């Protein structure tokens, strides 16, 4: 055989052998879960509870890494730019794709750079006030805000995070003016409300509910349609007199755009199985997190609906973050 034909035959044989080789079975190594908020946040808690169970099922460790800051955008950007190979996922609230693209003037990623994988759990925000504030009910807060517009302030876990939007949704509807004091996460905000540095806070229920249950903070209302498991005496916003109010949020798992559908589907299935385990459900609910997984297409549809809802709120209150 002529030399060039021998070379061609060798190339064809090598190509055939390469295609005959089975693809690497996923997962073949550790999987990284980037949490977009600090340790102790609802997402961090949910990720760590679920990671152990999913890791056992996949026979690979799920390593949780906190990358907080900028309302979750730092962690989201890191995952959006990561290889779409199934070894990097983002744990973040749904606001990363439903709210942040509408309020941040400069955003280094687009909502569709992240593929929704599964909802880990629903969670609420809780409006709480310190003992020193003298405020015990939502009606008292409203009356005080009307009496001295702009004199009251409230803490949240940051610009554009669920607590901020939940409070602004209430304030815009009630026509009230209360100063927003953003923190880097719900935990430091809670500490300053406890210390009386800020009279009130609209903060993640899993973080503040234990203090309400212990009598260290007063719970005025929760943002969703269900009361807190940890502080069941605190009414919902609707029960406290705000008709039609619902600000339920979800802790989500996202993958970089382009992650193979089969990997997204497998991770969805394994997380759903983990969330069905009694010990996992018990741990989540003990932290005021309600596990409600659904298929990726249903999750994506719900995110589109929530994005439309919150875009209307953002436009109404003209909320923009630099």
Spans of at least 5 consecutive residues with low confidence:
3-22
Radius of gyration: 23 Å
Any idea how many domains?
Answer: 2
- CATH class annotation of the largest domain: Alpha Beta
CATH architecture type of the largest domain: 3-Layer(aba) Sandwich
Q: What level of helicity do the residues show? A: 40-55%
- Average residue pLDDT: 90
Number of helices: 12
Write the layout of secondary structure elements.
Elements: H1 3-20, E1 31-35, H2 42-58, E2 62-66, H3 73-80, E3 88-93, H4 95-98, H5 100-103, E4 114-123, E5 125-129, H6 138-147, E6 153-156, H7 162-174, E7 179-182, H8 186-194, E8 200-204, H9 205-213, E9 218-222, E10 249-256, H10 261-276, H11 278-286, H12 296-317
Helix pairs in contact: 2-10, 7-12
Describe the structure.
The protein is built from twelve helices and ten strands. By secondary structure, the protein is α/β, with parallel strands linked by helices. The protein has two domains: 31-123 and 249-317, 3-Layer(aba) Sandwich (D-Maltodextrin-Binding Protein, domain 2); 124-240, D-Maltodextrin-Binding Protein, domain 2. Strands 2-1-3-10-4 form a five-stranded mixed β-sheet, with helices on both faces. Strands 7-6-8-5-9 form a five-stranded mixed β-sheet. Helix 2 packs across helix 10 (261-276) and helix 7 packs across helix 12. Residues 3-22 have low confidence and may be disordered. It comes from Achromobacter denitrificans (Alcaligenes denitrificans). It holds the Pfam family TctC. InterPro entries: BUG, Bug_dom1.
